[in-house]
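User: Predict the complex with manganese (II) ion.
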Amino acid sequence: MFNLLKEKIENLPEEKRAAYNLAEIKRAFDFAEKAHRGQKRKSQDDYIIHPLSTALKIIDFGLLDNASIMAALLHDVPEDTQYSLNDIEKNFNKEIRFLVEGITKLGQIKYRGREERKLNIRNMIIAMAGDVRVILIKLADRYHNMETLDYLPPEKQKRIALETLEIYAPLAYRLGMGRVAGNLEDLAFPYVYPEEFNWLIKNLKERRKPLTKYLEGVIPLIKKRLEENEIYPLKIYYRVKHYYSLYKKLLNYDLNFERVYDIVALRIILQNKEECYQTLGIIHKYWPPLPGKIKDYIALPKPNGYQGLHTTVFCENKKKVEFQILTEEMYQKNEFGIACHWYYKEVARKKVKGKTIPPEEELRLFNQLREWKETFLKSPKKETSKLIESFKIDLLKDRIFVLTPKGEAIDLPKGATPVDFAYAIHTEIGDHCFAAKVDGKLVPLSYQLHSGEVVEIITQKKKKPSKSWLKFVKTSLAKRRIKNLLLKEKI
Ligand code: MN
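Assistant: Here is the predicted structure with manganese (II) ion placed in the model:
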């Protein structure tokens, strides 16, 4: 089975292959294979198929990092086998342990469709991951689980698909991984909204065929016109919009297909930026553009880093067609996002074949990471419920994210205690808070919580808030409630 991974790596172009150490990867594979031996997936496959598939996806993402492949292979070991994180550190190293630990922690977070928790969870993932590679491996893990979701009981299918749609696909999107985000959404769509999915498929069937046929006729025309201007595109093809993103767009247009022009769009891949702008000009020379539909995402990339020129024109027979014009490099980054940046950052830095990383590339990576965090904190507006009113840009420094035993993320200020946690869940639980367990161990009520800890509150009906609690609670909610109750007691 290891051959799947070996062949995939051996078939990479030489400069990329250089990022991987096959002997070390084999060692991680053998360890995982032995640890999971005898375990089966719900599909009846040997369990090792899952970590192996996760590792293969890491290569598909273009993440040229050896530790990530090894961590992908080992990611379910501490959770599901007799081997612990310490065993992983002993057999491998601190870095692999750190990555696997991150993925294991993220695995404890569960989203059950409560709107106000959505932003919490996304922030928590960022805060807890600590390293973007942890999120990338988690995305690969989730991707394979989505591909094999059919084998799970319906209730679990729905929860996992919803979590994918609301948490993981947006994460992939923010990381600039357009292809992964789109595929995750399309895998989840039929489980979360089966009726809407069926409606879309039925309506698309009759529409897409004539559309693609028409575009096949346009391709030679545009090719000829570009060649007359000595522009030789690397590729011209039509791309079909992902189902879920099409459905979301239709929702904004009264479910009217006639008003969405990019169900199928023509994509032109060119050598460089200059050719992109020239091509835009040539297209507009023959086919007039629709006003307001010309988008220059090269000069002004989308917040997630997406680049390209878009225009919708009245094409042959006055049909409206969207063109997407971009370079090969832009294409790669649009599809694979931050995983590609990792390549520039890590591999190029190691001076593969004497080439060093251009400093602007590295800068762009950090800019994107920063932007990505900021976008998360600012949007979307709808989620700005009471809970997150006080969110600031420096939120990740001042807040911690802990989990309920059911895996729900609770957002608290730094230094918060189990009592704050109890009040954040429910005032009743706060009022009768008797003892607390953190990661299964009893702790004092004044214990300062850390991100990623699982907190369990033990309540007792007769227990009442004590004045001493005021000395250590951090949230205003808890303070107010305790004071109020103490006042009542006096009267
Ligand atoms: Mn897994």
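The pocket of manganese (II) ion is lined by residues 50, 75-76, 141 (CB under 6 Å).
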